[in-house]
Amino acid sequence: MVSSRSNSIPEINEIKSSALELIGNTPLVALDRLYTGPGRILAKCEFMNPGASIKCRASFNMIDKARKSGELKPGAPVVEITSGNQGTGLAVVCAVLDHPLTIAMSAGNSAQRAIHMEALGATCIKVPQVSGVPGSVTSDDLKAVEDCGLELVEKLNAFFVNQFNNSNNLLAHYETTGPEIWRQTGHHVDAFVATVGTAGTFMGTTKYLKEQNPAIKAYVVEPAGAEAIKGDPITKPLHLLQGSGYGTVPNLFKYEHMDGTLSVTDEEAVKYKELAGEKEGLYVGYTSGANIAGAVKLLKSGKLPENAWVVTTLNDTGLKYSPRK
């Protein structure tokens, strides 16, 4: 029997070879229902990465560069300290590339993140908190996690990803996030705003965007009371923005690409997290809510043209967090 399919029609193969090819190229969505103006908020849907967060980008780049340089040998163990999202991104990458992964994470970070990492084959060590409480992780807690991670590196003779000091972290966003935003907006970006954890996203993205147009403004979003980058005293180290606002200036952060900071309270982060769900159908995490709140504040501040487009990131899914009581 002769096939009815014409031989002149080419076969189209859209099959991805692995989860690694699902990283990046996330959609950019207008939050026109949540915010009606003046100006416009455009959000990069980073929760659509295979590890459900923006950290997949840096995870892949840091591991890929280490493998290519020979610093990470095939099948060798990997160790990292994380608030959860970087660990999940690394778990995706290490599962595909066959590297045993051990993660040190504060017990104060959400249990859902640990469950996610472990489901991808990683070993997650939950480090007891020093000064924080569940749902709020302080710089003291992070130091305890770092100490545990360094012990694991020595014990396992493992490659230490070291996201807080790894230049391939920010390079991932210089090479992918920034160019994607520039292309998706048709080269129309007035400002970029983002929370800062390691500073990889902010530094890499803003460096690229400002190289395309130096007039683009870049603002750091910080939790109220933990505004180390702004230079204010730390009065509220306990806040809801897991993975950011640790009360210190990250080593990867440089002031040269920043035009200012935006303070966001827990209540504002929760408000816009919930509005993203109720108005836009997007269930995101607390730093995503903070990013939206920061974008709204910037657009209402009068610092930008009335018709300005502000781009931000929706860093992860709301499924990574425990329900608030």
From TrEMBL:
UniProt-listed Pfam families: PALP (PF00291)
Name the UniProt record assigns to this protein: Tryptophan synthase beta chain-like PALP domain-containing protein
Top-level taxon of the source organism: Eukaryota
GO biological process, one term: cysteine biosynthetic process from serine
Alphabetized UniProt keyword annotations: Amino-acid biosynthesis, Cysteine biosynthesis, Pyridoxal phosphate, Transferase
Keyword Cell division appears in the UniProt entry: no
Residues passing through the membrane, by range: none
GO molecular function: transferase activity
Family per record: Belongs to the cysteine synthase/cystathionine beta-synthase family.
Stored CDD domains: CBS_like
Domain Tryptophan synthase beta chain-like PALP: 21-315
InterPro entries: Cys_Synth/Cystath_Beta-Synth, P-phosphate_BS, TrpB-like_PALP, TrpB-like_PALP_sf
PROSITE patterns: CYS_SYNTHASE
Cofactor needs: pyridoxal 5'-phosphate
